[in-house]
């Protein structure tokens, strides 16, 4: 995976976007990366204003003046170099276009009281489906570098990518790999009068295979000693969220399957639930560009 040399934070100047800009600044400093902050004036909304106010040039000038003032305020507390800009365009396409020139995209999520109702279908989630860059959704004000990171592991290639970037963005943090498993056809086995002892053995075998697989993911990594492993039985999203709460995780890093239909199903079944329900930041790592 290529190093992170450039971080882009997209802001709408809300409180959660302000937290995203702060986290982006912290990551840029720790990674030795350049920091860029972008605000896109939605051309659809600007068009509505143009229809209501006859002086088109004056409307656009005032909107840009206001946005530039808010940008100055949003970036005032950033220490170190920061390139900021305001542009007019279609919101998501403009952010996608800008993100192609950077290695990490950072966005704010809605506050915790709005997450379940508003995050599903929001700009952040819809962008996750198509993003070609690692995308960090920030949920709260950063209190410092990440300290406790959870990496859900579903398949080898996405899990390895997620682990590598987790170690990169959170050096020195305690990273925990977690795999959720269930015995295939366990309900059918019970109904077929398979003994409890046999089912327990199948569970144990499954856990041992998962443990060995997770251990193989850390091979060749310099910081492998900082990686813990947990294997638990149960639905993936529930296992991930329960573990994140137990260890008081401040970051969950998830590898996306790809930009295929399967990738969208994975986002819908696991990442979407984790993104909406988690209390901490969520970083989603897309498939490498040469794997699609």
Automatic annotation (TrEMBL):
<feature type="domain" description="UspA">
    <location>
        <begin position="146"/>
        <end position="286"/>
    </location>
</feature>
<comment type="similarity">
    <text>Belongs to the universal stress protein A family.</text>
</comment>
<dbReference type="InterPro" id="IPR014729">
    <property type="entry name" value="Rossmann-like_a/b/a_fold"/>
</dbReference>
<feature type="domain" description="UspA">
    <location>
        <begin position="4"/>
        <end position="139"/>
    </location>
</feature>
<dbReference type="InterPro" id="IPR006016">
    <property type="entry name" value="UspA"/>
</dbReference>
<protein>
    <submittedName>
        <fullName>Universal stress protein E</fullName>
    </submittedName>
</protein>
<dbReference type="Pfam" id="PF00582">
    <property type="entry name" value="Usp"/>
</dbReference>
<dbReference type="InterPro" id="IPR006015">
    <property type="entry name" value="Universal_stress_UspA"/>
</dbReference>
